[in-house]
Design a protein that fits this description.
The protein is an alpha/beta fold and 351 residues long. The chain has twelve helices and ten strands. The protein has one domain: Alpha-Beta Barrel (TIM Barrel), CATH 3.20.20.100. The structure holds NADP nicotinamide-adenine-dinucleotide phosphate (NAP).
Length: 351
């Protein structure tokens, strides 16, 4: 089965089952490399692209907005192609990345003023007049995420009410600047509160959930999967390769020059003993089945009934080709069963 088109939430808008991730463009990758990736992705029929106001990664004042600028310069170079692409971007949630805002603020937040500023700046950098999917990168409220717990004191902190956030977004939908909205790094509580407010008050519906999901990080299946299946809110699965770990590139302590781990040392999520053991077991399975481990990992995400699109990321054209080819891997009953056995032995060891 190759890349296909799937409906995003209940929007009627179709996106490709492969989404082009962009967060390395502007730090790890140059503008020319980003442009080459977009050209190639389109040639291969990948029409769904994901970015964020915060990118490129790792987050820094000097590089913030670079990725959107690179997409913007590609759009300017390719007049008439905007309609061929479903473009998703995101507003930062509560954080101390204060360089993201022009006004003097204490936190980046999802207040009306900050959403207005963020939408306007993203449109300017992207050089377009509309965003197909506008996502809240992470919530305005403190939430348990990436293995981090929320203290009782943090739970007491005021946050922008769900209803108010939807109202702020609605103004941009009505003005034609945004077509649809979604969440990212959200919890079941947050998604259901947004859906309930939308239904009760006729506000915009969150149509997608962009969360981490891969062979060794399957917390999505503890509640969010049910929301997807019953409410038709799409999963957009990020980090399908566990940031490179599931390719096997870091096996036996290897540290390839120019890899994310070598450059940024930011892969802690996957470095617990249990995480490492589980990663190794999936790499062995790929060896045994004689399939590319990247294809096994990506196609696993793609074949889940709750996945609408799997967001790939690549820092070279070879990697991009491998990631896109992964969608052609034939999925068998045997692969499914073998993965299930490993998963039962070590369910979701990574946060
Ligand atoms: N919403 C969020 O909070 C969030 C968080 C993370 C990502 N995302 C989105 O999801 C996209 C993908 O995330 P991700 O980059 O973490 O995905 P990933 O698929 O887990 O990791 C991609 C990285 O793995 C390495 N890689 C890819 N293919 C390879 C291959 N064939 N052989 C060896 N190495 C390979 C590359 O890094 P190196 O070459 O540097 O090793 C590449 O950048 C991002 O661009 C972004 O759009 C969203």
């Amino acid at each position: 089965m190759a890349i296909d088109m799937r409906e995003l939430g209940r929007t009627g808008m179709k996106v490709t089952s492969c989404c082009l991730g962009t967060m390395t463009w502007g730090t790890q990758n140059s503008e020319a490399e980003g442009h080459a990736q977009m050209d190639y992705a389109l040639e291969r029929g990948v029409n769904f692209w994901d970015t964020a106001e915060m990118y490129s990664i790792p987050p820094a004042a000097e590089t913030q907005g670079n990725t959107e600028r690179i997409i913007g310069s590609w759009l300017a170079k390719n007049p008439g192609r905007r309609g061929d692409i479903v473009l998703a971007t995101k507003i930062a949630g509560r954080s101390k990345m204060l360089w993201t805002r022009e006004e003097d603020v204490e936190w980046t937040r999802h207040t009306r003023e900050q959403i207005d500023e963020a939408v306007e700046k993203s449109l300017e950098r992207l050089r377009t007049d509309y965003i197909d999917l506008y996502q809240l990168h992470w919530p305005d409220r403190p939430v348990p995420l990436f293995g981090r717990k929320v203290s009782a004191r943090e739970y007491a902190i005021d946050y922008e009410p769900f209803e108010a956030i939807l109202e702020h977004l609605q103004r941009h939908i009505e003005a034609g600047r945004i077509r649809h909205v979604g969440v990212s790094n959200e919890t079941p509580y947050g998604v259901m509160r947004f859906l309930a407010e939308a239904e009760a008050k006729g506000l915009p519906r969150m149509e997608s959930i962009q969360n981490v999901y891969n062979l060794v990080s399957r917390k999505y299946e503890e509640g969010l999967d049910e929301i997807t299946m019953r409410e038709r809110v799409s999963l957009l699965a990020y980090s399908p390769l566990a940031q490179g770990y599931l390719t096997g590139k870091y096996r036996n302590g290897a540290l390839p020059q120019g890899s994310r781990k070598q450059l940024f040392e930011r892969l802690q999520r996957y470095e617990s003993l249990q995480g490492q053991a589980a990663i190794e077991s999936y790499l062995r399975l790929a060896d045994e089945l004689e399939v590319d481990p990247s294809a096994l990992a990506i196609r696993f995400c793609d074949t889940r009934p709750f996945t609408t699109s799997t967001i790939i990321g690549a820092t070279s054209m070879d990697q991009l080709q491998t990631c896109i080819d992964a969608f052609d891997l034939e999925w068998s009953e045997e692969i499914e069963q073998r993965i299930e056995e490993l998963h039962t032995a070590q369910p979701s060891p990574c946060p």
